[in-house]
Design brief:
Elements: H1 2-21, E1 32-34, E2 61-67, E3 73-80, E4 85-92, E5 118-122, E6 130-133, E7 139-148, H2 150-158, E8 171-179, E9 185-195, E10 202-203, E11 208-211, E12 217-218, E13 220-227, E14 230-231, E15 234-235, E16 241-249
Antiparallel strand pairs: 1-16, 2-3, 3-4, 3-6, 4-5, 5-16, 6-13, 7-11, 7-12, 7-16, 8-9, 8-13, 9-10, 14-15
């Protein structure tokens, strides 16, 4: 009997240890929904490219709405007239962490956090910078995993034809804003994807849990990006980031 009791106690300890090491375990339960992109791509090393039905003389991109596997999250993807990602949101399972430039939409991690498929975001006034929920419902936001895109990471690390190599004092920031059904802001959370201020030299290269509970209950979630590398025509640092595991309360 003592032996059985010891084994049961050991099992409980192991399970508790596993839970405490999962920084998202506290928000995944029966009352939450987590963004699920697993299975949306049938081929490896691929990404969602929608159809282009626009007139190239009028618009360079065409909107292709899509939902995740849960049916709760609704996104807009913009496909360019070159049949490539033209802004907004796309889902991807590519693993390329070394190729520089705008044609590479991979995360710098080379994979998603919760599955092989994750999301790359290019928030823009020319496409879209926000997503909403099915049925135009509102939900309380918990948080999400976030990391740098390979495009932005290598641009900041090495510089390129449009952007400079980051040096002391530079930063690259993601701002997440909640919007209610009338379009009013419910709250804002900032996250530095790169931070070279005050003696720091941080450039995010792992999936990091971002607590978004300060946004409260929202109808839409809006993303914006800013950087110290900004010129006459706006930000030079590529306005791309990757996310996974966006979590809401029911």
């Amino acid at each position: 009997m003592k032996k059985i009791y010891s084994l049961l106690l050991l099992t409980v300890v192991i399970l508790c240890s596993c839970d405490s090491n999962d920084d998202n375990s506290s928000v995944i339960d029966s009352s939450t929904v987590v963004l699920n992109l697993q299975g949306k791509l049938s081929a490896p090393e691929s990404e969602f490219i929608g159809v282009y039905k626009g007139d190239p003389a009028v618009t360079y991109s065409y909107k292709n709405p899509f939902v995740d596997q849960t049916g709760y999250f609704v996104f807009d993807n913009y496909t360019s007239n070159y049949l490539s990602f033209g802004g907004g949101f796309t889902y991807i399972n590519k693993t390329d962490k070394t190729t520089a430039g705008y044609t590479n939409n991979s995360a710098i991690t080379g994979t998603g956090k919760l599955s092989a498929t994750y999301m790359t975001v290019n928030p823009s006034a020319y496409s879209t910078d926000k997503f909403h929920f099915a049925g135009n419902q509102s939900h309380t936001v918990k948080g999400m995993y976030v990391t740098n895109s390979t495009y932005a990471y290598l641009s900041m690390q090495n510089g390129d034809t449009s952007a400079k190599k980051f040096v002391t004092g530079d930063w690259f920031k993601l701002t997440v804003t909640g919007l209610d059904e009338k379009g009013n802001a419910t709250g804002t959370v900032d996250f530095y994807l790169a931070d070279y201020r005050d003696g720091k030299k941080i450039m995010v290269d792992q999936w990091t849990w971002l607590d978004l509970s300060a946004l409260g209950k929202v109808a839409e979630v809006k993303f914006s990006m800013s950087s110290t590398d900004t010129g006459k025509w706006g930000m030079n640092t590529p306005a791309y980031f990757c996310m996974d595991g966006f979590t809401i309360e029911l």
